[in-house]
Amino acid sequence: MKALGIAATGMMAQQTNVDVISNNIANANTTGFKSARASFTDLIYENQAREGAATSEQGTTRPVGLDVGLGVRAVGTVRLNTQGGLTETQNQLDVAIDGRGYFTVNMPDGTQSYTRDGSFRLSAQGQIVNHQGFEVDPGIVLPDNTTSVQISESGIISAFVENETLPVEVGQMTLTTFVNDAGMRPLGNNLLQATEASGDPVPALPGDAGIGILRQGYLESSNVDIIRQITDLIQAQRAYEMNSKAIETADQMMSAANQIK
User: Fold this and answer.
1) pTM of the model
2) Is residue 105 a contact partner of residue 136, using CB atoms and an 8 Å limit?
3) C-beta of residue 190 within 8 angstroms of C-beta of residue 136
4) Dist CA 153 CA 112 (whole Å)
5) Where are the alpha helices (DSSP H) in 62-205?
6) Residue 159 in contact with residue 177, Cβ under 8 Å?
7) pLDDT tens sequence across 64-109
8) Element (H or E) spanning 52, and its range?
9) End-to-end CA distance of the chain
């Protein structure tokens, strides 16, 4: 009886589904986090009677076949790159992206990663870095005795230096886009990595056509819809229970068959 194996694949698929949903809920308050959903595909089918096969010498054929599927499996997690809400922080180094794009971060090993998390800080050398101390690309260093920083919607950074009445322009923040954002690989720590599936990074300036603008003093919240996640969690739980019920039923049927004398 194939029902045992088929239902087992269903239970494993729903366990993966619950894992993905749980991660979404756990990151509901993570800056710039994008929720994901698990996607599934049916497995191969065992063909017991071919549709269209001849059923008589007069040329009649079967209108439908007899195909028994062998279950389901998870094939991927799709990241939903919708805009998260903007939360005011009143921190002058917090920057939110309103629209498309990612900040570029230079990793210690010489590679680059990408993030929607604009909670930036200053290093001991006055350089703008992320919360792990990694340099934001392009590298921007604030002058000594900087009293405040101004970041425009187009990414121009100006520093107000002590005893100076006019701000000094110190750099330009840029954004990066990808043809297929969902194909980027999550690394943890709010960082993503480009892959062959995502396509090559495309540099742009904030405010360019199709590119987001920057909001100083704001951070982008996660786009997790808690109500939707709870609903999906209940549906996954019910599907898991039904698959376990199918195993129980198949077991009872085999037990009944074994007791026939």
Assistant:
1) 0.85
2) yes
3) no
4) 24
5) none
6) no
7) 878 888 899 999 999 999 999 999 998 999 999 999 999 999 999 9
8) none
9) 20
